[in-house]
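Reply to dn_fold:

You asked what the input looked like. This is it:
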Amino acid sequence: MWSQSRDAAAISKSPKVDQRRADGPYGAMDRGGDDFIAEAESLLGWWRDAGVDCAVQEEPRDWLKPAPVPVPSEAAEAGSGAPRLPSGRAEPAQEPLPDQLPLFHDWLKASDALPYAAPHAPRVCPSGDPASGLVVMTAMPSVEDCSAGTMLSGESGRLFDRMLAAIGRSRDTSYIAGLSCLRPTGGRLDPTGATRCAEIARHHLGLVAPKAVLVVGDACSKALLGLGAAQARGKVHRIATPAGEIAAVVTLHPDYLLGQPAAKALAWADLQLLQETLA
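and this is what came back:
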């Protein structure tokens, strides 16, 4: 091995140690003159474009860190009334629902804010007597209902009429409405649509303020009570509305009863429970 002294001696004798490049140790900038100024301005301009606005700062700075997103103050959030998402973003404000039944009916007929609203989509709006004390609520209109303009029409409707007659009621002495007055594509409520339709339905029930509501079918029962019809039927439930709680009885949909005639005995028991609740 070479000693440090021999290394130093060899380096000191090298003819290249003191030799300077023609361009100087720092390249072209060592030449001075216009070339140096032009290149210096170009270099400084590049850093300015990159966002460097000072040579020295008291604190370290991460130049590549994204700018922070401003978060509204609590006072601003309270004033806006918009609910907050987990990310901190505001959820779009829902259109306020009319607080009078006639205005609510007009809103159902025309509003674009309803779930499943689309240009020229048929709407089957409530019918019957809102002062009757009984609301019959099903999930949505069928294809046949959309053509007829009446909820629970056709063969299913004829069976439903006989069910009402069995407890001394008719369409004229009941108030019949859908959780949605529009039929979704595919005939199913998606989770988001079902949640919003249930909110609107609770508001609707609060405006009508009946003695009881007959919840017809599985989809309507799940949206309003969180239980399918098979699990929910047989007892009286309470639905919270802006006007207070309303008694609810669940029964099987007439479409189901047409395919399962033996289940009509269960529906009859539901209707008897409804009668007791209305008494």
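The chain has eleven helices and six strands.
Hope that clears it up.
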